[in-house]
Design goal:
The structure holds 2 protein chains of 2 kinds. By secondary structure, chain A is an all-beta fold. Helices cover about 0% and strands about 55% of the residues of chain A. In chain A, the strands form 2 sheets. In chain A, strands 2, 4, 5, 6, 9, 10 and 11 form a 7-stranded mixed beta sheet that branches. Chain A has a 4-stranded antiparallel beta sheet with strand order 1-3-8-7, with no helix packed on it. Chain A is globular, with a radius of gyration of 13 Å. Chain A starts with a strand and ends with a strand. Chain B is mainly β. The N and C termini of chain B lie far apart (about 40 Å). Chain B has strands at about 10-15, 20-25, 30-40, 45-50, 55, 60-65, 70-75, 85-90, 95-100, 105-110. The chains are: A mainly beta, B mainly beta. Chains A and B meet through strand 5, strand 6, strand 9 and strand 10 of A and strand 3, strand 4, strand 8 and strand 9 of B.
């Protein structure tokens, strides 16, 4: 089975712009969750989608949003980018939202 | 809310056994403990998961005492390729928004 695929691998944006990141989960996995990883804050949960519905949301501002499509693919959007949004954004999938998460390689976002 | 504490770094040599401990004093009754391995420029990779006592798979063992306030990941006979950051994750019983990742332990394996 193909693993979790995230695109693009790298992104460079400037402050104030918006960005959309994409995640294709493992075939058959219905839960997709997103995480932000920074050297200072470590891994932090953003949100989780299951069957196109957001089930859980972490403690991030409304500039961070996401959605999931009927084929379980998911997108994450960050509007009005700030310098502090520079991070590795990771997507993970699981068959049913269980604890065993399968992560993609991430999208490295740099905000200049 | 559960909080986890791990050593920041550890050093070992090839062929040795490595034990990494994670403290999670406020773990909820139904929380599982999961360990992940992460290499540079990659996402975390699942290693092992447990609820209590001992769990063993082909790459590691996980020891959880009866009070569940800590857990120990044991890597037998490490090699240079085990050099990575190891994270413990506690949670799920309260939903994804209650997930707590440890800060990670940077393991360096030397020849």
């Amino acid at each position: 089975k193909a693993g979790v695929t995230q695109t693009p691998r790298y992104l460079i944006k400037t402050r104030g712009q918006q960005v959309t990141l994409s995640c294709s989960p493992i075939s058959g996995h219905r839960s997709v969750s997103w995480y932000q990883q920074t050297p200072g804050q470590g891994l932090q949960f953003l949100f989780e989608y299951f069957s196109e519905t957001q089930r859980n949301k972490g403690n991030f501002p409304g500039r961070f949003s996401g959605r999931q499509f009927s084929n379980s693919r998911s997108e994450m959007n960050v509007s009005t980018l700030e310098l502090g949004d520079s991070a590795l954004y990771l997507c993970a999938s699981s068959p049913d939202g269980s604890e065993k998460l399968f992560f993609g390689s991430g999208t490295q976002l740099s905000v200049l | 809310l559960a909080k986890t504490t791990q050593p920041i770094s550890m050093d070992s040599y090839e062929g040795q056994e490595v034990n990494i401990t994670c403290s999670h004093n406020n773990i909820a009754t139904n929380d599982y403990i999961t360990w992940y391995q992460q290499f540079p420029s990659q996402g975390p990779r699942f290693i092992i998961q447990g609820y209590k006592t001992k769990v063993t798979n082909e790459v590691a063992s996980l020891f959880i005492p009866a009070d569940r306030k800590s857990s120990t990941l044991s890597l037998p006979r490490v090699s240079l390729s085990d050099t990575a950051v190891y994270y413990c994750l506690v949670g799920f019983s309260g939903g994804y928004n209650k997930l707590i990742f440890g800060a990670g332990t940077r393991l360096a394996v030397h020849p």
